[in-house]
Specification:
62% helix; yeast vps74-n-term truncation variant fold; mainly alpha; two-stranded antiparallel sheet; two-stranded antiparallel ribbon; 209 residues
């Protein structure tokens, strides 16, 4: 089974053209949240709502090397916001390496400009499973709910699935709000990082004028 951040990247890829449906900052922030959520779902990370920190819940080594490496790099306890920021530094290469190793997609350059899709079925599967929840055809499960929550955090639900932005955003918010406290906290951290990225981009634009 693919990891949550891998599923997120597949959702961001147009299954016909291989083009990426959002900018690098958007994708990277979502992937960071996805990696943290995967560690929570694996039982290795826990969330303390009183201290508002992510903590080690189970120190048992993970069988997946990328997940285990991500866990050891976090140096918890720390806030979800700091965890997202720290994970951003390496999550793109980690996710791409995993998908390329399994022959799902490839890219000639390590940039989010586009991919060559090798396994269209894998892309279609995650898009269908997540879309069926978003459009109300089935009840949210933990995995689909988390994916939708993170797409909502980076304001990309309508970019990924198409359709009326207001309606899709409202549906995604409803799903996101129903997630576990840990995923809700990670969602908020990703939102905060998106705000920082937007402010930085705006400031840079003003300096270039």
């Amino acid at each position: 089974m693919t990891l949550l951040p891998e599923d997120l990247l597949l959702l961001f890829v147009n299954e016909q053209t291989g083009h990426v449906l959002a900018g690098p900052e958007t994708v990277t922030n979502a992937l960071s949240g996805g990696m943290l959520a995967e560690l929570v779902h694996s039982g290795r990370l826990g969330y303390d709502p009183h201290a508002k920190q992510l903590r080690i819940a189970d120190p048992t080594p993970l069988p997946h090397p990328f997940l285990h490496e991500s866990l050891t790099r976090l140096h918890v306890p720390l806030t979800p916001r700091r965890a997202v920021s720290r994970t951003r530094r390496y999550v793109r290469d980690t996710v791409l390496t995993g998908l390329e190793a399994r022959g799902v997609l490839t890219t000639q350059k390590r940039i989010f400009g586009g991919f060559v899709i090798r396994d269209a079925g894998a892309v279609r599967e995650v898009r269908t499973a997540t879309g069926s929840v978003l459009f109300g055809h089935r009840s949210p499960d933990v995995r689909a709910g988390t994916l939708i929550s993170l797409l909502h955090a980076v304001n990309a639900v309508h970019k990924v699935f198409g359709g009326p932005e207001h309606e899709l955003t409202a549906r995604a918010k409803q799903i996101a709000d129903a997630q576990s406290p840990a995923v809700v906290a990670i969602h908020a951290a990703v939102v905060a990082e998106m705000v920082v990225a937007k402010v930085a981009a705006t400031s840079e634009g003003r300096l270039l004028r």
